[in-house]
Amino acid sequence: MQSAASSVQFPALKRGLVAILRGITPEDAEAVGAGLAEAGFEAIEVPLNSPHPLRSVELLARRFGDSLLIGAGTVLSAASVKDVASAGGGLIVAPNVEEVVLATAASQGLISMPGVFTATEALNALRWGASALKFFPASALGAGGISAIRAILPSGAMLGAVGGVAEADFPTYWRAGVRVFGLGSSLYQPGDKATSVLARAQSVIAAYDALSFKAS
């Protein structure tokens, strides 16, 4: 199996938190992004089934690209990977595992985080150059399932949990080996004001910091 070390490496973020802004519009993207940055988030994902997602990626990357990891989710094709790269994005997130998507992301120098649910999917994703694994939907697999699959993965594999995850779940998933958490509707819903997102983001940051200081 190809080593995960040959892929574009997932960055060493101060906090392994990705804000998933599903449904965000370009009109709201910068204000919400500013609130997330103020709270301490370092990674933002705009799913491609949002309104005019590439424009939002472009706006966020232009304003925050020097300090935040900006990218897109629900990326299902090589063409979409290239579109995200052209918009200035540096992160490719998918709900599934497609070899061509991962290969294209690597060729573009982009970080990739495909969705996996089984040991076969996880091993294939690493073989094909994934930067990290997104266990999705994490709430269905559970921390126990993730821990069981982790036992057969390379020791350096970066694991994320997305789908039904909120800050109250951090300790359980952390003990299972998860170091990246993607938060969607618990953090942002379409139409939310930037001030509301900021308040939620601050709560998430506090929960993560309390966890990481206590965990080994």
Please, could you describe this protein's structure?
The chain has 216 residues and is an alpha/beta fold. The protein has a single domain (13-214), classed as Aldolase class I (TIM Barrel, Alpha-Beta Barrel). Helix content is 43%, strand content 15%. It is built from eight helices and nine strands. The chain has helices at residues 26-39, 53-64, 78-86, 99-107, 119-127, 138-150, 170-175, 194-214, and strands at residues 17-20, 43-47, 69-73, 91-93, 111-113, 115-116, 133-135, 159-162, 180-183. The chain has a nine-stranded parallel sheet with strand order 5-4-3-2-1-9-8-7-6. Helix 6 (138-150) links the parallel strand 7 (133-135) and strand 8. Helix 1 packs parallel to helix 8 (194-214). The longest helix has 21 residues, at 194-214. It starts with 16 loop residues before the first strand and ends with a helix. 49% of the residues are buried.
Strand order of the largest sheet: 5-4-3-2-1-9-8-7-6
What number is the mean pLDDT? 94
What shape does the CA trace take? globular
Per CATH, the superfamily is Aldolase class I
What is the CATH architecture assignment? Alpha-Beta Barrel
**What is the number of E strands?**
9
Number of domains: 1
User: What is the C-level CATH assignment?
Assistant: Alpha Beta
Can you summarize the main beta sheet?
A: 9 strands, parallel
What would the CATH topology be? Answer: TIM Barrel
Give the SSE order as H and E letters: EHEHEHEHEEHEHEHEH
Span of the ends, CA to CA? 29 Å
Strand content: 15-25%
Helical content stands at 40-55%
Contiguous uncertain segments of 5+ residues: 1-5
What does the radius of gyration come to?
A: 16 Å
